[in-house]
Amino acid sequence: MNEGIEVAGSRAELAAARAGLTGSVAVVMTMGALHEGHATLLREARKSADHLLATIFVNPLQFGPNEDFSRYPRTFDADLEICAREGVDVVFAPTPEVMYPYGQPEVTMHPGPLGDVLEGAVRPGHFAGVLTVVCKLLRLTGADLAFFGEKDYQQLTLIRAMVRDLELGVEIVGVPTVREPDGLALSSRNRYLSDEQHEASLALSRALRAGAARRSAPEVLAAARAELAGLDVDYLALRGADLSEDPGAGPARLLVAARVGPTRLIDNMPVHLDAPHPRES
Description:
Blueprint: E1 6-8, H1 11-19, E2 25-30, H2 36-48, E3 51-56, H3 76-85, E4 90-92, H4 96-99, H5 119-122, H6 126-141, E5 145-149, H7 153-165, E6 171-175, H8 195-212, H9 217-227, E7 232-240, E8 250-260, E9 263-273
Parallel strand pairs: 1-4, 2-3, 2-5, 3-4, 5-6
Antiparallel strand pairs: 7-8, 8-9
């Protein structure tokens, strides 16, 4: 069923497969356990380039010591089926030894101040691990375009900054969050949720929708906060579209992270803020 798709596990195999791709190449980077959100990324990337390359790699660098690296879902055969269905030409599925042949990297990508807030404050070192592996994969795949989901909005923002500041010459494309019919943002970690926990997790998307319906910063945050009562919330934040601290008027981003049972979920939604009335300024 996976006819026509080439799987590369080593750098040499990737280089040989990449040499056979003429024209533009798009890449979608994943940690496996693919779902409809990943399929949407692959679909959008497939439309935009002559060839499509996907990576499947559970990156140890971005997991903290007490996080779920060892139990992160690994569904390789099912992942290949999805890649084949969505027209992927090459899947690069390295081991940690292939990605980090010299062991734990001594030099990593520093995410700057934005890497220390929101997700970075809760997961120290996470974004250094993310940016390091993304930079390596951009170099190894030689992609012209790379597609990332907006569900991990802070990650997307930092990747764009890295590519811009280091002049990596790759176009970064963000794709809107894909949701289940009940509003829950699709995530590989959703499979950890019991039926009761799934129901409780819907408060995240309800909070974001409630906030997005308002037009002033205090009202956005108050409306969202009201929907999160009883949840173990790591943060609820309203930021500029570029995640600057002062959103100002115009496009902004409302972000939330919370724990439902042992599972930690994140979500975000675009918000539009009106300019404050003169008497409010």
